[in-house]
Amino acid sequence: MKFFLDTANLREINEAKSMGFLDGITTNPTLISKENLFHKEEIENHYISICKIIGNNKSVSAEVISTKYEDILKEGMKLSSLHKNIVVKIPATRDGIKSINFFHERGVSTNCTLVFSIGQSILAAKAGATYISPFLGRLDDISYNGIKLIQEIKYIYDEYNFHTKIIAASIRNSIHILECSKSRIFAITSPINIYYSLLNHPLTNKGLKKFIEDYKKKINLT
Ligand code: G3P
C-alpha cells in the first residue's frame, strides 16, 4: 500500500521522506494557497522542488484550477511539462472527464479528483484516468459512508479489470488508513499528522517511561 502525503509544504515532505514512508505527493489549490506563493511561476517552481525532493518514479499530483475543457488542456499540458513525475489532477466534471480522456490518449498521467460517487469513478476509469481520488472524510462529514464507497469502487474496478488506481483522499483519522489497507486500496493520501497518529499507543509511552526510569535508578549517566 502506498502512502502519499497530502500537502504542498516542503518541510513536511522532507520530514516524511526522512521517515521512509513517502511514496508520492498530492496537492490541491487549497494546499497550494497555504504556501505563500503569489505568482504562477512561483507555484510552478514549487512543484519542481517537490518533484526533486521526493525522487524518481514518485508521483506529484498538481491540480488544474481551470474548469473549461480547452483551459484544462492548456493548463494541464503546462503542469505536465514541468517534470516527468507530475500527474495532472482534474475534477470529476464533464469537462474534466473529457480532458482526462484527451491526456490518456497522449500518455499524460492524470488523477481524477473530487470523486464522491461510483458513477464518477466509472466514467473516470473509462476515460483512462491513471488515478482517482475518492474523498472519504468529506463523505463522512455529511453522514455518507466514505469507506463503503471506496470498497465498492475497488470491487467494480477489479470485476471489470479497470486499470485506474484508487488513492483514498480526505483522510481524517487512522481508522481510515487501516480500513483502506484491509481493503487492499492502492494508496491513501493523508496529512502528516494522521500518519504520526499511527504511532500512538499508551502502552508504548508507558513502557518507554518505565524503561528509562529503571535504567536511571541503577546506572549513573554522568
Ligand atoms: O487533496 C484532496 C483531499 O485529500 C482533501 O482533503 O481534508 O480537504 O477533505 P480534505
Describe, in plain words, how this protein is organized in 3D.
Helices cover 54% and strands 16% of the residues. It is α/β, with parallel strands linked by helices and 222 residues long. An 8-stranded parallel barrel has the order 1-2-3-4-5-6-7-8, surrounded by 6 helices. Helix 9 (174-182) links the parallel strand 7 and strand 8. The longest helix is centred in the C-terminal third of the chain and has 17 residues, at 202-218. It is globular. The structure holds SN-glycerol-3-phosphate. The site of SN-glycerol-3-phosphate (G3P) has 10 residues, from helix 7.
List the helices and strands and how they pair.
Elements: E1 2-6, H1 10-19, E2 24-26, H2 29-33, H3 40-54, E3 60-63, H4 69-82, E4 86-91, H5 94-105, E5 110-115, H6 118-127, E6 131-134, H7 136-141, H8 146-160, E7 165-168, H9 174-182, E8 187-190, H10 192-197, H11 202-218
Parallel strand pairs: 1-2, 1-8, 2-3, 3-4, 4-5, 5-6, 6-7, 7-8
Helix pairs in contact: 1-3, 4-5, 5-6, 6-8
